[in-house]
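Researcher: Here's a chain I'd like modeled. Treat it as a single chain, no partners, no ligands.
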Amino acid sequence: MSGIGASGVSMFSKSLNKLGKVLMVRFIKQKTVILRN
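Model: Modeled as a single isolated chain. Structure tokens:
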């Protein structure tokens, strides 16, 4: 049971990191677009 929980947490953290990177890229792109305009 604990092993499944640990793997689930690691998977969740990995997906969270991916989501964070995507959001950061979108945020930077929006900033650059605003600066260009």
